[in-house]
Amino acid sequence: MADKEHTDPERMEKIVSLCKRRGFIFQSAELYGGLNGCWDYGPLGAELKKNLKAYWWRKNVQERDDIVGLDGSVLTHQAVLTASGHVGGFSDPMCDCLLSKARLRADQIPAQCGTAYRYTGAKEGDWAVEREFAVLLKEGQNENKARKTARQYYAQFHSNKSLSPKAIELVGETTTEETGTTSFNPENGSLLTEPREFNLMFKTQVGASSAEDDPNAVAYLRPETAQSIFTQYKNVLDSTRVRIPFGIAQIGKAYRNEINPRNFTFRSREFEQMEIEFFCHPDDGMALTDEWLERRLKFYEEIGLPRTKLHVLDVPDGERAHYSKKTYDIEFDFPFGCQELEGVAYRTDYDLSKHQEHSGRPLEYFDEETKEKFIPHVVEPSAGCDRTALALICEAYDEEELTDAKGKTETRVVMHFHPRIAPIKAAIFPLLKKNAEQVRIAKEIQASLQPFMTVFYDETGAVGRRYRRQDEIGTPFCITVDFDTLGENGDALKDTVTVRERDSMEQERIKISDLLNYIAERVR
Ligand code: GAP
Fold first, then answer.
1. pTM for this predicted structure
2. What spacing in Å lies between the alpha carbon of 382 and ligand 1's midpoint?
3. Can you tell me the mean pLDDT for 3-26?
4. Considering only CA atoms, which of 436, 351, 344 is closest in space to residue 383?
5. Is 344 left (phi over 0), alpha (psi -120 to 50) or beta?
6. Amino acid 212: pLDDT
7. Tens digits of per-residue pLDDT, 123-143?
8. Residue 384: CB within 6 Å of ligand 1?
């Protein structure tokens, strides 16, 4: 059973700091104070994400003959998202803190108990304001705290901005006892506005000369990659040889104007999804949903997320999207709690039926063998690329206490990425940078590996320090060219190098001519 409450903020802080220090993830527009909810992947983060996406594509498209790929546009026609229900319904309930103006998701406010101090207004000299306000005090808090907060609230309506809130007299104080209320900001006790629905889509205008109010010029940045798969399903069917059951896979950006982006990249406003819409006969939907769940769990294990940290939530009736007959959430134990990585949903024929109805174009499938005509049902494994990358980073991070031969201890920071996901596959070192022959051979090795994988050449500092730098970014193999490579200690080891494995720190001697195969078969 997942322990949803368990968190480790200190570990998370170290991970966020390493991500910036070593170039995995930076805040977008950091130079200008940052763009909230948006992130830039640095050199190592870009490699990590590329490896993750390539493995997902390989497993789901390249190695299957019943799934094909798509790369749809991000800008999405208004009609598509009206048919799918996003224009009318893709919203979160939101409320604002009357004091701090912070915007909160109404459904994420914890139920609170305490005494609410309520006011009808405030006055100071000739000035008066009539507005209701309230402050929730938890048991044991002093009533003066409520009054201080209320005065701060009313002071914002006074024309004299330098007036001390202490000068303001509160009007009509009453108190009520509250249990399980969600009407107050848990941070400061201030009353919140009533929840309002807030559409999460980013709207934009298409075309230079579009009139602002021209409905034909309205487009949206897609909130999920799925819709272009549904709207192109017929074109894919007509232009390829796929037959039901078959899937269309897509990796791409999606955009949601999230009310509270949080937990580093976990909830962002711009993020990448890896989605499959698997089209099937209505009789097969339920069984395929279970099959996909197992396949997806296996995928996560294959990239290094242990099964013990993955949890399956069978989303109960009433909590699933209205169109879904079955949904499993795959959750992972992040340092900030157990949270969703992917949803595996049985979407029935909802989307294709809606697009058929709104477009007026037939989207039925005709089965040549059975002569049956039907709207295909859909099973959708929908994964977040950024969330998975974050899970990989969180899982990989480790601090090990090492003791050397002289009894001196040090902490080794190491990222235990699975080699197939690691940003850099191998680092190549000449033992001595002043030894021209060692440098020449190391560079030759680098050039021979580069067409096949991302490698790194490093000649600065002691070899031990070079190892530590690579451990910290998760490079699984370090190759060192030394005096044995040159044949200076006899012919037996000539043209061999040491390969040091990151996790065990053990070294073996490998022939230079075997290096490519040795590494390639371990990072595949
Ligand atoms: N087509 C179905 C769909 O979009 P979803 O549960 O809203 O379903 C699927 O999103 C996955 O996309 C989530 O499981 C998560 O991994 C990722 N995702 C959704 N919103 C996200 C956000 N704001 N930031 C990062 N990833 C997000």
1. 0.89
2. 7
3. 92
4. 344
5. beta
6. 67
7. 999 999 999 999 999 999 999
8. yes
